Please model this.
Amino acid sequence: MFSLMAALALATFSAPDAVKADGPFAQRGYYLTFMRMPTYDLADWERIVDGVRDDGGNTLFLWIAGGFRSHKYPITWKYNEDHENVRKDFVRSLIDHAHAKGIKVLLGFTPFGYDGANQYALEHPELRAVGKDGKPSAPFGIGCWGVNLCPSRPESQRFMLDYVREMAFDFYPNADGLMIESSDYAICHCDDCGERFFEKEFQFVRRISEEVWARKPDATVVVYPHYFSGADVPGFGVKAAKLPFDPRWSLMFTPHSAHPEPSLIKQARASFWSDDSPARRGPQDIQANAQRARREGMTGYVPSLEAFTFVASVAEEGQPWLKDQRQVPLGFGWLRPGDPPYDELPVRVNRIAFREFSSNPDLPLDRFREILGREVFGSASSRQAVDDLLDIQSVFNSGRTWCQPSPATCPERVRAMAARGESTNATRAEIRAALDRVRAIAARNQKPTTEGERDLRRIAIWVLDRWGEDDRKLLEAKPSL
Ligand SMILES: [Zn+2]
Model:
C-alpha cells in the first residue's frame, strides 16, 4: 500500500491544510448527503471522515441544508427534527476533526430548492416556482419533500442569502467553503425566469460567493457551469446563462446534469467530476469515471457515496411500499439504524476501488483484484474468493436505485414490481441466477478462516434469508400466454 503510506506520511506534515493527493487529482473525496442521514451522531461521522482519509481523500462535499437547526428558519429542519445534528449540533466539531485529518469540508446546498430551502415555500406559497406547464410547481424531493422557489422574487433571494449566511457564517465558519449545487430536477418557468432562470439564480450565487471570499479569500466556492457556459442545460429546455467567469470559482460537473466545458475547466481554480459509481455501481465504473475525469482535465474526482437513513414520509420514487419505512443505507438491511454502512464488505470493495483508481486510473484490473483480495482475505486470498467478493458487491448494487435496494436483496421490491406488472420472466430469471450464485458463495465459505470469508458468508446468508417460501413464488417463471 505504497500510495496510502505516502498519503499518511504527508498528512502528518501538512495538517490542517488538505492532504496533498497522489495521482492525477489534486482533490479526491466523496459527496455525502449529510441531511439525509439523520441517525448518525458525531462519533459515527468522525468514523466516516476517517474513512474518507483511509481512501486517500482530502475533500468532503457535505450537504448540510435541512440538517442544521437554523434559528432564523425553523421550517427548514422541522421535517428533520430527529436528525442527530438538529438535536445537538456537532458539525463544527466534525469539521475540526476533518481538518486534523487533512480533509477540507465544503458545505453543500441547492439554491432555491431541495432539502431545507424547499420547505420555505410551505410557509410562503406565493414564492413557489412555476413548472413547464405554467402551473405552480408540484412538491418534489428525496427525503425532504417541498417546492422549489422562484428566484425572481426578492423574498426568495433574501431568504436564500440569510439562510446560507447563517449556515456558513454563524454555524460553521470553520468550513473551507461552499458547494452550490444547481438543481438537477426543476427550474422556474415563470415569465420573469424562463430563459433567464440561471441569471436569476446567479444573483444569489455571486453575492454569497463574494461574501464568503470577503471573510476568507482562500475559500473554495464550487458552482455549476450553468451561469457561464451558454450551453444547453440537461433536462430543462433552457440554455445556461453566459455571464463573466471569475477564476476564483471552482466548478462541478456530472454525467447527468452538467456536462464538461473545456474552456471553463481551463479557467477555474478547480474542477470536480462527480458521478454515482461508488454509491451505486461497481469498481469498473469507478475506474471509467476516474479516467474520464482525468481525460476532461478535471483537477478533482469527488463522486457520491450517498447512503440514506431517513424515514420516507411519502412514496419515494413513486413506490408506496417505501412510505413510512426507514431507508436502508446502501441496501444493507442487517444494520441497526445508528450503524453507518461504510465498513461493510460490499461497499469496502468500492471504497478500495475509489482509493486505487482515483490514485491511478490506469491500474490494470488484475492488479486491482490482487490488492482487493489481499486487503480483504490476506494471504488466504484466491481468484475464487475475489470473484465471490465482486459478485456479492454486484448483487447489492445491480438495479439498486437511490431509495430502493436491489431486487435480489429485497422481496418487498419484487412484490411491488409484480403488482405493477414490471416483473418479467427475464427479471425473475436474473434474480434466481443471482440467488444461486449467492447460495454457492455461502457454501464455499462454510468454514471461514478469515474475517473476510466470515463476512462474505454472513452477508450471503442474510440475502438468502430474505426469501421466505411465499417470496420465492414471486420468482417462478410464468408460462407466456
Ligand atoms: Zn420564476
